[in-house]
């Protein structure tokens, strides 16, 4: 069985950066060897509202739709979606000060990037 190197970042929703609280809402996984760049998301509205009852959940969903567009290479991702896969992952893992923020980059080995993404979503997002 061939084990392939991959990198991933956990996407965090940070409703109030001043309080440094966040809820994990997704995982972006990049496997250069297979040309795999995908995101899996799960948003727990109740947990987010517990951190900030005024949080605009539509803004959270729009931020995640943008990430989906970048990964898929479609118009939702704007100009970033037209870059090569490695550059798209680099764009997504870069720190930013929006409500959706990437955590640190991690890596590993897998025989099945899609299955690994689902495993990471279940383990890190819930």
UniProtKB/TrEMBL annotation:
InterPro entries the UniProt entry points to: DUF3037 (IPR021398)
Which Pfam families does the UniProt entry name for this protein?
Answer: DUF3037
According to the lineage, what is the superkingdom?
Bacteria
- Name of the protein in question: DUF3037 domain-containing protein
| Organism whose genome encodes this protein | Nocardioides euryhalodurans
């Amino acid at each position: 069985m061939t084990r392939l190197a991959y990198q991933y970042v956990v996407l965090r929703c940070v409703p109030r950066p001043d309080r440094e609280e966040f809820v994990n809402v997704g995982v972006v996984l990049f496997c250069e060897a297979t040309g795999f760049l995908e995101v899996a998301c799960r948003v727990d509205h109740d947990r987010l509202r517990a951190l900030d009852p005024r949080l605009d959940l539509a803004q959270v969903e729009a931020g995640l739709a943008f990430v989906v567009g970048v990964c898929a290479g479609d118009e939702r991702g704007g100009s970033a979606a037209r870059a090569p896969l490695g550059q798209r992952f680099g764009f997504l893992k870069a720190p930013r000060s929006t409500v959706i923020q990437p955590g640190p980059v991690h890596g590993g080995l897998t025989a099945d990037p899609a299955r690994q993404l689902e495993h990471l979503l279940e383990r890190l997002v819930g």
